[in-house]
Amino acid sequence: MAEADAQRWDGKHATGRPVEAEPPALLRGREHLLAGGGRALDVACGRGAVAVWLAARGFVVDAVDISPVALEALAALAERHGVADRVRTHRHDLDAGLPAGTSSGYDLVVCQRFRDPARYPALAAAPVPGGLLAITVLSGGDGPFRAAPGELRAAFAALEVIEYREGDGEQALLARRTGAGP
Ligand SMILES: C[S@@+](CC[C@H](N)C(=O)[O-])C[C@H]1O[C@@H](n2cnc3c(N)ncnc32)[C@H](O)[C@@H]1O
Fold first, then answer.
1. Which of 3, 12, 105, 166 is the most exposed place for a label (fewest CB within 10 A)?
2. With the CA atoms of 164, 166, 172 and 175 taken in that order, what torsion angle do they form, in degrees rounded to the nearest 10?
């Protein structure tokens, strides 16, 4: 990512409304699926609403984002919730792939409101067999941030779909990795 784009994200995070800890959108009402806890990966985590919520539920979380401003806000939120020791932040450009050491072994992988089709194979491979992937992207219309019709369903066809929805400008997929996976 160009430095100017990273700075643009910093600016958005610096002026955005404060965030509070909250569950991944696809897991609201399905918190029982998280009962086992374990390791979680939050890809393009922003200011950490989801990462901190997961840490507060007992997960050990790797949280990845390009924006130092976002990661500082995440660290402050984690501190407020008393879970700073369970969240590890990675300032990293996802254009280069997932950070070293975060490519596998997760009970839950979350990627909310961030689209990079080049990362789909890595996201499919990051959960342990039996682990979950929760991903949402903008859809409809044109532009690099918007998914093509059916994009998530096709990209993650090797996973067992728990929920797939498409409409109102968004695609959302909750799926489980089965067997040895992709
Ligand atoms: C729309 S926000 C979503 C944040 C969070 N997942 C949520 O649901 O609120 C997209 C996030 O992706 C991050 N981002 C954008 N491009 C990135 C890149 N190339 N590498 C890492 N993070 C990136 C931005 O800093 C921002 O936090």
1. 3
2. 20
